[in-house]
Amino acid sequence: MVAITAPSSIEQIPLVQCPRANASAAIPCVDLSAPGAAAAVADACRGVGFFRATNHGVPARVVEALEARAMAFFALPAQEKLDMSGAARPMGYGSKRIGSNGDVGWLEYLLLSVSANTVKISSLPPSLRAALEEYTAAVREVCGRVLELIAEGLGVDRSLLRAMVVGREGSDELVRVNHYPPCPLLPPVDCGVTGFGEHTDPQIISVLRSNSTAGLQIKLRDGRWVPVPPAPESFFVNVGDALQVLTNGRFKSVKHRVVAPEGAQSRLSVIYFGGPAPSQRIAPLPEVMRDGEQSLYREFTWAEYKTAMYKTRLADHRLGPFELRATNTNSCVPPPPPPSVDPYCNGSGICMPQPPPQQQQVAEVH
Ligand SMILES: C=C1C[C@]23C[C@@]1(O)CC[C@H]2[C@@]12CC[C@H](O)[C@@](C)(C(=O)O1)[C@H]2[C@@H]3C(=O)O
Ligand SMILES: O=C(O)CCC(=O)C(=O)O
Ligand SMILES: [Fe+2]
């Protein structure tokens, strides 16, 4: 990872160079209305922890209305965007800074709590708020359908997971609208600037939709990064940390990141994060555990996980402090191998920007 220093005339936030994706692989695709959907969803969640969902039932009109309103919002002067939504703390409008622990990316965003289908920021333009509420209502249903399919695929009660998020009083639903302007580096420099750094999503699942501009990449279990070709008519589903725990590690939360767009197009993505109520206990579902199977995690509440998560950096392994390591009394079994690390990352997964090879000109996100 390489930091590129901005000229002194603009805000001194270093841009972080994103290593290139080094593989191509087919992203699992599931027709949510097909008879075998539950098995296909479970397969994808067990394998990559990520899939593309088609036949989701969300009208194109709803998606396009939000895209148009969001693009109009991001085209406003920076001060107006701040006045209308407040600075992200963590909800609100943010530019370049992600969270409050030093992560940066080449993007601006709106992060909103949408529990009970009410966008909690009252000063947003009414047309944007209406589009967000209509979109959220539709995508919440996609989340609910996927959670039913996951439960069916796991062989547990169909409504078990859905009921933790959809229609559950106090469930913690967020919507994030990310706008990635084209790569800030001037040609002929090869871009590859980080839009949104490597991380897993903390919730149960996330449901993402983007415009036709590429940039999202996922990390396969073998450590290779693969680009996700944009599919504006589809949604992408991520397994989150909470689902990893609920399934006792059968499903693993997927690492993903975004590289700033090459060329002239901006990337616009909207992500619905399905989180449970603060008091929800997060522990392996008894129904998925085999006889004698040990829990890999100590039980915690969603409130506890969120408190811990807001103290972490994006790339941190957030579940680490909640893992129970089985004490190994059999001296014939070798200890697990050390985690594979990026050459510029320390063992805890925190990536340090490296000194720039040369100074580069950058433009500013407005
Ligand atoms: C650096 C951070 C941003 C984040 C909160 C955190 O401290 C660690 C998790 C981050 C993340 C990643 C997925 C979602 O975009 C997000 C909203 C979330 O729930 O966890 C962000 C958080 C954020 O931007 O506040
Ligand atoms: O913008 C994207 O495509 C993904 C962003 C993301 O992973 C997030 O907001 O958590
Ligand atoms: Fe994410």
From TrEMBL:
Q: What SUPFAM superfamilies does the annotation carry?
A: Clavaminate synthase-like
At the highest ranks, the source species' classification is: Eukaryota, Viridiplantae, Streptophyta, Embryophyta, Tracheophyta
Q: What protein name is recorded for this chain?
A: Fe2OG dioxygenase domain-containing protein
UniProt lists the family membership as follows: Belongs to the iron/ascorbate-dependent oxidoreductase family.
The Gene Ontology biological process annotation of the record reads:
gibberellin catabolic process; response to light stimulus
Q: Which UniProt keywords apply?
A: Iron, Metal-binding, Oxidoreductase
Cofactor(s) recorded for this entry are: L-ascorbate
Keyword presence, Iron = yes
Which PROSITE patterns does the UniProt entry name for this protein?
FE2OG_OXY (PS51471)
Q: Name one GO molecular function term.
A: metal ion binding
Task: State the coiled-coil residue ranges.
Answer: none
Asked if the record carries the keyword Transmembrane helix, the reply is no
Where does the Fe2OG dioxygenase domain lie?
170-276
